[in-house]
Amino acid sequence: MRLVLLGVPGAGKGTQGRRLAARLGIPQVATGEILRDAVKNGTPLGRAAKARMDQGLLVPDDVVIGIVEERLREPDAAVGFILDGFPRTEAQAEALDAMLARAGTPLDRVLEIGAPVEKVVARLSTRLECPVCHRTYNPAGAPPRDGVHCDDHPDVELIHRVDDDVEKIRKRIEVFHAETAPLAAYYAKDGRLRRVEGLGEVDEVTGRVLAALAADADADAGKEARA
Ligand code: ADP
Question: What average pLDDT does this structure show over 92-117?
Answer without folding.
Answer: 96
